[in-house]
Amino acid sequence: MSSNRYTYGIIEQAPLDLDVTGVDGAPIETVDYRSLSAVISEIETIEPERTDENATAHDEVLRAVLQSDGGRTVVPMRFGMVFKTENALKNILRNGRVAFRRSLNDLDGMVELGVKLVTKDEATVDRPAVVEDVATRLREVADTEAGNDLYSDRLVFNRSYLVERDDQTAFDDAVAEIRETYGDDLHVQYNGPWAPYNFVDIEIGAEGR
Amino acid sequence: MFVVDDLLINPFVSILEAVHSMAISELYDTAEIKNEIKENRLLYELGERSEAEYEQRNDELEAQLEIAREAHEQTRGKVEVMR
Questions:
Q1: CB of A203 within 8 A of CB of A74?
Q2: Which of A60, A109, A158, B43 could covalently link to A148 via disulfide, CB atoms 3.0 to 4.6 Å apart?
Q3: Are residues A137 and A163 in the same domain?
Q4: Cβ A116–B42 below 8 Å, yes or no?
Q5: How does pLDDT run across B35-73, given as a tens digit for each residue?
Q6: Domain end point (choices A42, A73, A108)
Q7: Residue A37's domain spans which residues?
């Protein structure tokens, strides 16, 4: 029997009742420290394998947290953050409380949305022009943007946006217009809302795990 | 003769080493394989690859990645991989 804690993210302390299970099907629980709670599940290993199934479970827990209780704010952890004991996790919450608190405030009422443009077979486009046009249109309806890696030759555009929940409809519309403009040559992949992975900058070292 | 030997042998050795490390870095380029894994996933999500194609390719790439990691592990400190 193991007491390792797989950690999904940090929220404002409040009761959490989710319909999803976590990595390896484990039930979701919280570990509280003062006004913060870590969203966790128990796990056997301290190095979970990054399979599609596990990565999806991680995302789904965070999305369920985002949607719970009429829209909650969460500071997400990257995949694979495991603490050996509850105390080690509480130490992180204590040592990082200022940073977590600040992130919770910055992210309050925000969601992350992702937009990718991918060339259709054989299609050629004026890449710099497309990128500039699309970036301009999306910036108008977003709070902050973050560029992501163009890991494939067919990827023309890959950015994440931090958007106020209330502005999400405007962002949806902007993406629909982009699809109308470029849909003949480009796939437009629009996804989210995600937990704001790309807009959190908290490093948690191995120390204290 | 001595000079010629030096010139012939020494550069030759270093070229071999260079070729070896280039071969390792290209064959076993973990960053490139990871990119291909992500591209495969993307094309599957966009409906350009079937689930069967996606899974088959993904298994191949994961196996390649495992081999590449082992190759890097084994050559660490012996051959400098320049990238």
A1: no
A2: A158
A3: yes
A4: yes
A5: 999 999 999 999 999 999 999 999 999 999 988 888 777
A6: A108
A7: 4-108
Count of structural domains within chain B: 1
Last residue of a domain, one of A108, A123, A158: A108
Report the alpha-carbon distance of residue B12 to residue A101 in Å, rounded. 60
Locate the chain A residue with the closest alpha carbon to B58.
A52
Whether residue A143 lies inside any domain: the answer is yes
Three-class SS of residue A11? strand
Reported confidence tier of residue B77, pLDDT bands at 50, 70, 90:
low
Residue A199 lies in a domain: no
| Higher pLDDT pick, B10 / A184 | A184
ipTM of the complex: 0.77
Is residue A201 assigned to a domain? Answer: no
Please tell me the distance from the alpha carbon of residue A195 to that of residue A107, in angstroms, as a whole number. 10
Residues in chain A with pLDDT values less than 50: 1, 207-209
d(CA A94, CA A48): 25
- A121–B48 C-beta distance less than 8 A: yes
Does one domain contain both A65 and A23? yes
